[in-house]
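User: Predict the complex with magnesium ion.
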Amino acid sequence: MAGTIKAIRGMKDILPPETGRWQLIEQVAREVFDLYGYQEMRLPLLERTELFARSIGADTDIVAKEMYTFADRHGESLTLRPEATAQVVRAVLENRLERGFWVKKYYTIGPMFRYERPQKGRYRQFHQINCEALGTDAPELDAEVIFLLVDILGRLKIEQVRLLINSLGCPECQVDFKARLSLFLAAKEGWCDDCRRRRDTNPLRVLDCKSQRCQELLRPAPMMRDCLCEACAGHYARVLELLGRAGVAFEEQPRLVRGLDYYTRTAFEVAAVGLGSQDAVAGGGRYNGLARDLGGPDLPGLGFAIGEDRLVEILPPDCGQGRQEKIFLAALGTAAREVALALLQELRQQGLAGEMDFDDRSLKAQMSLADRLGATYTVILGDQELAQGQATLRHMATGEQEQVPLPDLAPRLLKR
Ligand code: ATP
Ligand code: MG
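Assistant: Here is the predicted structure with magnesium ion placed in the model:
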């Protein structure tokens, strides 16, 4: 006999009760985005491969080995989105949203796909909450975007986090930096195979290598902040100053780069305690050249992505458990079930959640069901009670019971 069909490796079912934690995170994120003037975009999961190849960069891990790319029935190369920024910028340009007088602020929530080695905190379908702001290079916007991220994490009571920050400069400073870095990389041996190739194609990517050995070798490498031009150095200093004034704790991390080529100037990451080696819960930065790379006008912008799967892991355990107040209606017999069904509808209309049994179980079985469902009150409706126009109301935690006339039941329960 053939076995049952399983989900694809690296892709998981997200099931209740854990879904409550996902809902809470998204609800808090939506509230915060709204407070900061962001609006939601819902974008396709599939895009033309070219969009990512052109923006993320050919020699990045994502484009070189992590994309789910295939030809559709007409032979067009399509890719399941590995990240959202390129696609948000694509949507902005395509829909001419960049026109107008002010900063454009968008967020998007949904799955991303990368063909990586599955492990704790690393999946092939994972989920991000993305924030993108376009239209100004002002360091105030960088600060505001970081405030927003810190705000979401704070409201979710994620406390043990470190905000790491760096500046990647502009293309001009990067020329100088890449030249210095290339000299440094060429003068040393022992790099992994990937990095030996990256030395020639895209030296910045070496800084992002996950190999312990390469990271050791990189210790004395030149640092971007020593190569920043005056404008970039000033921009960076101002961002740090604004964060400091607002009391946002950060650590400068001069080796921080991002895994995508389009980043310029401010780059940041949030690392969380308690996640082991996949400890980045969010990453982001500025991408002033991205719109132009995609054939659009000069449109400076920045954003971040929160890794929702990792955030769920570190959310305090008592979060996202959903509604606490629930009523159970234990009805005995057809007539009682009919009354119970109507009463339940009345309660729900008033905003009280409740359930009942439909299968004629014994009172004992229904009481244990009520217990397992976590009901705060159980209403017991039997023939005798019905005849008297009453029901028994039982407080589950104390076991206290009383007789309540049927018309009083809904008002009584609602008063709690
Ligand atoms: P990492 O260094 O962990 O590979 P990254 O730099 O590739 O992360 P980004 O592209 O910046 O990640 O994505 C932002 C966030 O999305 C990360 O900080 C992380 O929380 C999450 N993330 C990235 N890849 C995965 C994955 N394969 N599975 C789960 N979450 C992921
Ligand atoms: Mg990665």
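The longest strand covers residues 104-113.
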